[in-house]
Structures
1.
Amino acid sequence: MKKFGLAYVFAIVVLLGSCSVPSNKIDLVNLGSELTSSSAFAETPQLTDSSIGYMLYSINETDCAESYFWFSSGATAEEIALIKASDEDAASRVFEAVGERVRFQIESFEDYVPEEVPKLEAATMYKKGLYVIYCCADDNEAAKKIIYNN
């Protein structure tokens, strides 16, 4: 009986050791590259200096450990913000700032280019641990697939 019990425990340890544990880390550079090279955008957003992203999103730079922002020419609402916050509290502040940016964009585009509003309303706004991801694309479903597979 003892041999069976030890063999059983050994088998469980081997099985558990071989299971992959999902990582809480997101490779923002790779994710940005996948998004911008996809066909999800009518107009490919351009990578912009983070200081511009901080200003447009009203984000405090000290809340970010890593950040990347892509913007369209302004004729569309398409943009990407990929941010790793410096801590959990900062991630909450960044997520709230992104929500404010989306609300501002909806108000702006309602009069400017109203056909962009549905894109904004269907955009991906996602928080996972320290990571905050925002993506507004022409094909938001395609963008979501890329985001949630990373």
Note: Residues 23-148 form one domain.
2.
Amino acid sequence: MLADNESLIWEGGATWKAWGLKWILGWVLAPVVVGLFLLASVWAATRSTRWKITSRRIEIEQGLLSKRVETLELWKVRDVELRQTLVDRMFDVSSVLVTAQDNATPALEIRGLPGSRDVYDRLMTAVMNARQQRGIMNLNQ
């Protein structure tokens, strides 16, 4: 549930495309049983983590059998970096690395985002707005 004046930027989990080569290699090696372990690891990775990015916070829900929810307020974010390897570009996915001034979550990788820059740009705008509302100009010192 979103608070007042909070808008949803992106919500979801990673797609299998975030581990595209591992997924393909798993299917190729499935008859050799090794591939089943690769496929199981990709399945667990896609099912165990979900993210909710809003204009005020990033919420991470992790776990298959038990759940843990952690929240990172955007005003604590120091840097946001968009990463897209050649394989990511082939599968039209990206990752965002968030660095924060937070003891619990100093670095956070959100993997399996859509390949466009839309989520990244909206997140950067939200971080700048959250910093301005708190009166924080530069945390990189």
Note: Helices lie at 20-28, 34-48, 86-91, 118-134.
3.
Amino acid sequence: MNVASRHTYSATPAVVFAAMTTPDVLIEKYTALGHQDVTIVEWTESAGVVRVTSKRKVPMEVPGFAKRFLNPLNTVEQTDEWQPATAKGERHGTWKVSASGVPVSVGGTLHLVAAPKGRTVVEITGDVSCSIPLLGGKLASYVGADVERTMRAEEAFNDTYLAGG
């Protein structure tokens, strides 16, 4: 299943990038989304490449067909890796999410680009797949829908954070 998000923020690329990669902001965001035991496992910057890995427990309503594969509280590790900023402050990168004991792979690309009037567009695309025969597609679709709900919640948090509130 493909997942995608395109959102415009009322802040410059540098400000949006900082909000999306600063450990304290990430912890605040994931906690506000109801995630538990949020930690930043890694934050590195080398030659302009920024890599952030977070680990957290994510609650999820699990439908009957998925109870063999998902728990109501899953430990998730996410790694975002951003390439150096261009002359215009734009950034491109990748993201990957894995959940302990869950047979689903999730990941894709990140694009942060300048928009008119000092705004920024962030595009996130990805793929959710599962190798389990028969139920794999259904499980990937369910997890993909949850990933997209989380993307929307993250956008709402970022909007509020960037507005100063």
Note: The chain has one domain: 2-162.
4.
Amino acid sequence: MKTIIGWREIVFFPDITNRAIKAKIDTGARTSALHAFNIETYKKGRQEYVAFDIHPLQRSKKFTQRVVAPLIEYRSVKSSVGTETHRPVILTDVVVAGRRFLTEVTLVNRDMMGFRLLLGRQALSKRFIVDVSHSFLGYSKDIKKYKAEFL
């Protein structure tokens, strides 16, 4: 059964940060994109990793967190303004509206954008229906379950 969510939602990445991140739900984007900077890749044994910094709090640079994750691949992604970038991709758990699942996330500097996270069609498909007239429809479900752990 699909869960109804709004055009923006509170999202949790348990493997990345203990902070909630406000996300724009973007049915026009294929993959999800997380604001990241100071992105560095390195190899340890046979596995490639990506290390990056995030500012999980919207419109705030006061809190910075360093994250390390296995690198899945690099992918060419065309932005909404038509610019193509080559982005690192990670696979991570995400929690939206009380549902936890694995999803691919590209890392890109989104300093100039309103949201630190775009949640794209791959993450939404077969799980959610987006009601564009509302925001944070899944928020109360997540807060009850994750407030003590994440907020």
Note: The helical segments are 121-124, 139-150.
